[in-house]
Hints:
Number of strands: 14
Number of domains: 1
CATH class: Mainly Alpha
Strand content: 5-15%
Largest sheet: 5 strands, mixed
Strand order of the largest sheet: 1-2-12-9-3
Amino acid sequence: MLDESTIDLFNHRHTQDLWETTARWRRESPVVRLPGGFVYVACWADCWEVLRDPLTFANGNGFKAVEMPDEERMLGEMDPPRHPRLRRIMRQSFDKRSVEAERHFARAEARRLLSSWNSGTKVDLVSGYTDLISNLVSFRLLGFPLEDSERIVGWVRELLHSDWPESNRTDRGQGLAGAFPDLAAYFDELVEARRGEGAPDDLVTRLLRSRLDGQPLSPTVLRTLTAHVVLGGISTTTNLLGSMLLRILRGKQLHTRLRAQPSLIAAAVEESLRVDPPVLFVMRVCRRDTEIAGMRIREGEQVLAGIASANRDEDVFDAPEDYRLDRGLPQHLSFSGGAHHCIGAGLARLVAQEAIGAFVEHFDVDDIGLVAGYEFEGVPVFLEFGPVCLDVEIA
Length: 395
């Protein structure tokens, strides 16, 4: 169990091993001050109060430690009035009908990938399956050329594992264009290609044709919003799928049950989101003096809504450590909540349902297993949770 005086919130080895510590906080001190001036909120009800009040608990700069120019802020780094206006524009491509239209493609691609492996071979399910299926579906929805997916994922992985998520810069330069010029140029070229006649009706085209306060979106805003969708979906859906597959590979009973009753897969996705949330916490900045669970929070303090802890709150979930498929409607906070509820939540659910459905349909319990000596290693990102690799052997 980690001691709060030594916790480093920017060290993934600390943040991914807080389960026992946060359980103690929920019992003893549900709001905790941590090194670096952070306030961690451990209980579900208190986290929900933080998430649903963007005026008191603003998004500020997200997790960036520097002040961001407005045009370079992603949705998760914006506050009203700018945030709701741009969010309405973005949601056009993530409505229920648009997302549901991708289901057939998701299942077909999942089956294609699974069928490409031969008996007796070893595969990393993260690089060989979860990364690919989650990004093929989202890139198709966005309008990206699917043949570019491997290149884009490579750029994004480099970005997520760099100093940019915290400081908005790397040794190469400032901002997305300065720190990752190749990725920024790729996004800019996609936008320019949509300016002509006959452009496809996809997210990039819709952004290009949108107006904010009567004016077209600037090239920087277009680049930033395109990047937001890519960055927001690449790692989180992969983390969700990786955690689900690890539970299936370690639990023959779960594998057998989902294979025999595919109608339970949707419930399994929700339970995995609850127990193994792809994002461990989100940060807000207190904009006015207030209280949380009786603790005084001062203006300017950084407040962490502890999603991973809230999802195991004993006051909300019966036997919260147990993985169960009978919990009914989801109450977890894994897609955040309030004004900043994840716009890609529906797509993430769809991809997870189809990828897991295809997996348990293709492989029976004894057809695939973790390689001998496999040990879990978490992704090297401080606010995320999921396996960095899943090495398996196909019988």
